[in-house]
Amino acid sequence: MVARDTDATPFTSILSTLLEAVPGAYAVTLVDAEGETVDYTGRGAPFDLRIAAAHIQLVLQGIDRFNGLGAARWITVRGRRKSIAATVLPDGYALALLLRPRSAFAISTRALGVCLRALAVEAGWKELGDSGRSWFPVAVTTDRRGRPIRIGEKEADVEVLGALVGLSRRERGFRVRTENGSEFMLVREPGQRWYADEPV
């Protein structure tokens, strides 16, 4: 991790959680509308991370000024040696992920959604726009075949009702039911990271 040149903030742990959940990411920054880095975590010199964050903010603002594409929401740039992906946040803020080159187009939208919700709570943002389905990280115990049998910290038993289709080839998903009759979806991403489509 970066030897910090500033104190950690309440955003630091949120960014660290995202960094751990995105394979191929080596740093993440939160940058304000003026291009100033609010917080960062990962590997790399703090100055280099700040410069990358400022540049991606300029790119996002340039897209907005161009007017031909509409308001920028998300941008991914894949380079030969490194890549960067950024998403627009309320009040002119942006979140930028610095990645290995082949990782830029495989970012977990579930992990990103978890991060954006946590940032919104911490920053007091009421509206993040249309971020699609909400996902929530969850601990899952599986059987020998990799099918869920218990979930959550209290390890509630679940029954698998069926498999989900339409996921990437490195993901597995299940429709499950708990003992109290509630049903929801579980998806396992690479790295054995599980997400539920409802809070568990």
Can you describe this structure?
The chain has 200 residues and is an alpha+beta fold. The chain folds into two domains: 10-123, 2-Layer Sandwich (Beta-Lactamase); 136-196. It has three helices and twelve strands; from the N terminus they run H-E-E-H-E-E-E-H-E-E-E-E-E-E-E. The strands form two sheets. A seven-stranded antiparallel sheet has the order 6-12-11-10-9-8-7, covered by helices on one side. Strands 2-1-5-4-3 form a five-stranded antiparallel sheet, with helices on both faces. Strand 10 and strand 11 (183-189) form a beta hairpin. Helix 1 runs antiparallel to helix 3. The protein is elongated.
Secondary structure blueprint with pairings:
Elements: H1 10-21, E1 25-31, E2 37-42, H2 46-66, E3 74-78, E4 83-88, E5 94-99, H3 109-123, E6 136-137, E7 140-142, E8 148-151, E9 156-163, E10 172-178, E11 183-189, E12 193-196
Antiparallel strand pairs: 1-2, 1-5, 3-4, 4-5, 6-12, 7-8, 8-9, 9-10, 10-11, 11-12
Helix pairs in contact: 1-3
Briefly summarize what is shown.
This protein is of the alpha+beta class and 200 residues long. The protein has helices at residues 10-21, 46-66, 109-123; strands at residues 25-31, 37-42, 74-78, 83-88, 94-99, 136-137, 140-142, 148-151, 156-163, 172-178, 183-189, 193-196.
